[in-house]
Amino acid sequence: MFITFFITVFLFFLFIKLIPDNHIPPIFQGDDWYEINRIREGWDKPIIVQFGYWIRNIFRDGSFGFSVIYRRDVANVYFGKIPASIKINIVPYFLSIPIAITLGVIAALKKNKIADHIISVGIMIFISVPYFVVAVLSQYIFYFRLNWAPTHVIATASEFAELGLAYGLSTYILPVVVLTISGIPGLARNVRAELTEQLTQDYMLLARSKGLTKRQAIFRHALKNALVPFLPGIFIGIIGVMSGGIITEQIFRVDGTGRLYLAAFNGRDYALLMLINTFGQFLFLVSAIVGDLSYTLFDPRIRVGSGKLS
Amino acid sequence: MMNNIDKNKLVLIRDSDERIIDQPLETKEIGYYKDSWNRFKKNKASLAAFVIICIIFFFILVGPYMKKYDLVKEDPTAAARLGYLTPRIPGLENLGIFDGTKTISRGKRFLHAMYHSEFGEGIIISGLPEEIIEDPLHPDYANVSQITVKVDYYRYINYITSYMPERYFGIIDENAVNGTNNDPLGEVRQTLTKDVFEDYMAKNYIIDILAIKESPNPSNPAEPYYQYEVRINQFLASLDQAPEDTYFWFGTTSRGGDLFTDIWTGARISLLMAISVLIINTIVGLTLGAIAGYYGGVLDLLFDRLVEIISSIPFLSVLTLLILRYGSALWVIVLAFTATGWIGAYGTGRMQFYRFKNREYVLAARTLGASDGRIMFKHIFPNTLGLIVTGYALAIPAFVFTEASYAFLGIINYSNAVSVGMLIQQGQAVMQVHPHLLIYPALYIAILMIAFNLFGNGLRDAFNPSLRGVE
Amino acid sequence: MAEKILEVKDLAISFKTQYGILHAIRGVSFDLFKGETLAIVGESGSGKSVTSRAIMGLLAGNSIYEGGSIMYQGRDLMQLNEELFHEIRGTKISMIFQDPMSSLNPIITVGKQIAEALRFKLGMPEEMARKRAIELMEQVGITNAEKRYNQYPFQFSGGMRQRIVISIALANNAEILICDEPTTALDVTIQGQILELINNLKKQRNLSVIFITHDLGVVANVADRIAVMYAGQIVEIGKADEVFYDPKHPYTWALLSSMPNLATSKKLDAISGTPPNMIYPPKGDSFAPRNKYAMEIDFEEQPPFFKVSDTHYAATWLLHPDAPKVEPPLAVQTLKKNRGRVKK
User: Fold this and answer.
1) Chain C nearest C-alpha distance from A154 (Å)
2) Could you tell me the pTM of the whole model?
3) Nearest to C102 among A201, A224, A300 (CB)
4) Which residues does chain B have within 8 Å of residue C290's beta carbon, measured at their own beta carbons?
5) Please, which residues have CB within 8 angstroms of residue B217's CB and are 6 or more apart in sequence?
6) pLDDT at residue B294 above 60?
7) Is there a contact between A124 and A116 (Cβ–Cβ < 8 Å)?
8) ipTM for the complex?
9) Smallest CA–CA separation between A8 and chain C, in Å?
10) Distance between CA B397 and CA A261 in Å, rounded?
11) Which of B8, B14, B21 sits opposite C294 (nearest CB)?
């Protein structure tokens, strides 16, 4: 896993360095800009060495490179935007999970009845239609047509100060709702499928025949078994809250890490891109580890492993 | 009860040594494909989705040709004047929808002038109060600067681009305040030479003549140059038809392009790209998968590592890096998708080849004497075909989804082609004033995606009944 | 005189399937006496499992009740609503199933699964339930019960798991135990152990057992009475001795003939043909198409039960006074002859 991480990061680096306009100095920088960076990052040395320099700079100075659009260290820029992303992502994430599970459970229990059909149709629609379409349409409908939302973007810090906390929070309602809704169908669909599967298992029969009521059997056995496969995923998802959705941030004007990516892309800020990609890979690595760990935590078969059979 | 039976029937009908033969099966054997098709038909939702997809495909094929409209290419400035028109469909317009009208708010004097002018007659459909019709400066509306009215938008646009600009009265006021001398009719004043003038006159493009300017001709003083300052009916000039006869089914874009055509052109491009990506993915993936599955061993392990590395790279990174390096051409996008996309087909190919080697029913068929080719065709292939077709049906919407999302964000930005994602982005920018630019592309994508997903699900259930119940 | 503890009368149950209505049970009647083991024998599809599910009230959602009754403690179980039924399950009537691996929940410790029965039915506090569960585990022959209480099903062998299932079933001291092919999924050597366990428990607790199986060899070991089922009906019922050594129904003959017999080297006498499709139940005697001894009447009228003795009945026209006399096949006669020499 670590090797994969290392190799992918190096591949990023390599590819970026190969892009022709890599070392063009930005405007308004002095002539010595090139020199300074050349020494610091080793621009005239082979790429592998440059990679070494980059890593050294990280551990020695805590510096990830110089952002050409923001004129400071990219780490500074990037990590500064994380709180904004977290602010917009965290509530939807924690809201969507219980709602999705509830819907999935209802759909599985009332299979093929009206409730299931409605939920399934809803899931189908929201899983198919691209997220940005949903977001933009809801902006249009709820702000421009129905005037339910105060404005179609979230409030900036200054607006919070001027117009008060209540106003500021109310601007968050629409994006949070949209984000929550987008997170629900995937999990709901999986829960529904898994629970349906578990309900037909033999141990449910034994549970009922030992005298548990239907409800007791469902909640103490089927549901527990059905949810276990999803718990690692949920843990991993928490990590994802930090790197915001680019689309959300673009549409609702959130000043977070996603938007930063777009800015870096449009402004050809390679140092920033390098950091964002690397950090993304790093998060991926952490998630993989967390995922593995949580499996051992939740599934006794893996935890106890090769217990002695007798 | 015992007494009611016919005692004569109490006779054995079989010899004790007679062997009882199994009766032949009474049902007919159905082939795998026919069986799957039956299952598919039963799923009403998928069938409906299939029909919808066919309709969409029809439009993709035929749509861009349905309206002959090349103005954007031929004369962008003229086309730009026709921008932002509202949707209008013949026939449906009589029902009150798609009737090319729009609700706008403009200044009192402007509306008043338009109401009473010959060229602007009838443009305003409703909303202009009687008082203003009489007197634009009526005291009842003294504190209201703009009136909201419903207009025939096509004729309205023609009016403001041909006859009187919206800023007309604004410019007059400015002139009064600042002492400047800007021409309030500046936007609509066109200057023509005599030849063009006569040509236009013949074609009836001219609305009226504002002035004729004479300038001396050095070579022939008797015949001075004439310049005609006129107002031209823009619709007639650009399209050769009056606004009343012009129909843009979904309205026009900011540059004056027909939204209907643009949507289907964009759809066509994304579909072609999707198919190319799929084909490339399949070829590359299956080949590599077959090799890995067949030879196994070290090669297989190496491939595994490679796949692991590639799949840990997020698609966004690949896409952005490639675009930064090579620009935003169509082939770059296709490359980006295939760079990580072949892994799916690789997995399938490899799996199928492993199965080919070891499967019990393959062994059984071999035992019965089937040749390799027959085995592959009759046994492995149906399984694979089902997987492949379902995979395709679900891969196309996945591609459209991703491509549209990134086009929306502006990461994918074709210079000479249009993507529906881009259309939506443009629509979003002006959604308050020109909602049609947002709604129709958005609806198109939504319907396409839902239909494809339903269809794909139906296919998967039809080919693989054991998965029924899992969405 | 033994008392009747369960009385099934003319039970008929069908299932709604996508191909039509499946008539699974078509008029089944039998009694269960206190302290006895009644074996229900039949091929797959004969309806034996459905019968047991009906008694437990655990029929699938697409089941249709077509008639009949199951009388227990003065109440008709078929008319009971779910609330009342769930009080009976586990405490009065219990069931164990074929595959112990899938019967147990893989992610919950076995101890908890046993204790669950105690806590939820009797309201036992946790610690007490734990102690009792460990006792139960020891009763069914699991050594080191205290430690193994916290282990998971996959840490046990097949036979051990079945013992756990049995302890769950008997945790609340049910008086009727239904065993649905409990040994089919186990190795032959373990089979014997489990059968012995069931027998012992039956004696200790004075259980009444319904034992469902398709394996006549197993039946020989456990049954007091035997009911033979075919195509949703009971075709012969009687004391174990009677059915084994004096069977009257051609199907029973066929079953007994098809038992592999290590003693002789005769050819296996398989029953040709397949059971009928119960969506279109045959008119007349359902076994007729495969019956070597079929008569014309078998294809037209269903035979009623003919009395062979007070405890022995068979539904075959061959027992009609006017029917031709037929000798049972060789294998059956041999069995009878070897009766005294067969150790039970």
Assistant:
1) 45
2) 0.80
3) A201
4) 20
5) B223, B224, B225
6) yes
7) no
8) 0.82
9) 37
10) 25
11) B14
